[in-house]
Amino acid sequence: MNPTSKLDESHDPALRSWIGSANDSAADFPIQNLPFGVFRHDFEERPRVGIAIGDQVLDCLAAARAGCFAALGPLVDDALQSWSLNALLALGRGDARAVRLAASRLLRRGTPEGRRAQTLRETIIVGMDHLSMLVPAEIGDYTDFYASLYHATNVGAMFRPDAPLLPNYKYVPIGYHGRASSIVANGTPVRRPRGQTRPDANAPPVYGPAKSLDYELEVGAFVCGENAIGETVPIARAEERIFGLCLLNDWSARDMQSWEYQPLGPFLAKSFATTVGPWVVTLDALEPFRTAAFARPMGDPAPLPYLNDPGDQLRGGFGITLEVWLRSETMRAAEIPAVRLSRGSFGSMYWTVTQLLTHHSSNGCNLRPGDLLGSGTVSGPEKGSRGCLLELASRGAEPVQLPSGEQRSFLADGDEVIFRGWCERDGVTRIGFGECRGEVRAASPGVE
Ligand code: MN
């Protein structure tokens, strides 16, 4: 049932695009990638679906109007002319695969479609510099998981030294329902939240700007298709419900979180902002980078049968390298470039994305096109692969040193956080996710 490798002509490393910048071996968006996003021209309000190619974007509205996607039928043609990815997400993986293949032929050097598209270049191609990226879908529901065993263990040890990993962790993919309204587009400044904290355990809590603001390096998964309420998604079919993956920053206020989280989990410490990366890399583009699921150490329980599928164990993982970079206000003023804080791998996650989706639906919860699942902080076993400052600086005990001479236990106002992600493997063309950026702004003046 679980599809084995689905490599096709679109993955051929020999393909070249008539967009020159896409043929650079270090490019995030070669013709073998073709991720989807939603953008707006500087001169108009109407959002458009786009496909990244090199340092350019294929304007799907303009391309559809020029007849480039007519062969895919009116439903797909209409979806590509809509204001968000939702219409395409509603159609599902099969149609998304067809659009990516059509875009590959359009943007390819040496095909009849490519030659025709090249004559339309002025109409259908726009430079990335001349547009703003938006949140790629209208996100109805956002759920954030906690799928890294290393993150759960490190953080658990700080909050509950006697019981870092709770007994449910290796059975239940832990998650909570997040907030969709405060998901913001790449590059949107993030205002430091205000909230209730209890800095002195012997005094009442206080209300004010959070002091322990953090980022969380995560991977987001956009859901496509729909299961009716009451219906579950078997794990062997879960992959068809995932359109693609993106970078995600689940900004978190640790001092608010540690005071509010028990007994119902995160609330205001997480819901003030979540930044979604600009490009959704489809599962089809990620096909050459599939890996086995995380190898559970000896002695760990096997996943319960509804989460245990041989195909998923064989290829449920994704070989994605993920990095966090930071540039403070002082560094910007001194023209010091951003510094890398960590580098990790999505392969270190205890649960696969398909296990997360199947578990989410396992009670009959309907997952709808445009829903977003967050993986949880991606942290690996090594210190240099910890995906948030709470872990990297050991809750303030070992502050991170910046090249400006500054130190960070948590984020300061003016800090810009940049995530990068990419996949590479011998014999295959490297693909990337672009960058997910956000800069911290001071808390708003408020009543305290
Ligand atoms: Mn998170």
Sequence-ordered SSE layout with sheet pairings:
Blueprint: E1 36-41, E2 48-53, E3 56-59, H1 60-65, H2 74-79, H3 86-91, H4 93-107, H5 112-119, H6 121-124, E4 125-127, E5 131-134, E6 142-145, H7 149-159, E7 175-177, E8 183-185, E9 190-191, E10 194-197, E11 206-209, E12 213-214, E13 217-223, H8 235-238, E14 242-249, E15 252-253, H9 254-260, E16 274-276, E17 281-282, E18 290-291, H10 310-315, E19 317-318, E20 321-327, H11 329-333, E21 339-345, H12 353-361, E22 372-374, H13 389-392, E23 400-401, E24 407-408, E25 416-423, E26 431-441
Parallel strand pairs: 6-22, 8-16, 9-26
Antiparallel strand pairs: 1-2, 1-5, 2-3, 3-4, 6-7, 10-11, 12-15, 13-14, 13-22, 14-16, 14-17, 18-19, 20-21, 20-25, 23-24, 25-26
The structure holds manganese (II) ion.
Taking pLDDT < 50 over at least 5 consecutive residues as the criterion, the unreliable ranges are none
Sheet bearing the most strands, described?
8 strands, mixed
The oligomeric state of the chains shown is single chain
Outline, from the CA principal axes?
globular
Distance between the termini: 57 Å
Query: What is the number of strand segments?
Result: 26
Radius of gyration, taken over Cα atoms and rounded to an integer in Å: 22 Å
Q: Compute the average pLDDT.
A: 96
Strand content: 15-25%
Number of helices: 13
Unique ligands = manganese (II) ion
State the share of residues found in helices, binned by percent. 10-25%
Class by alpha and beta content:
alpha+beta
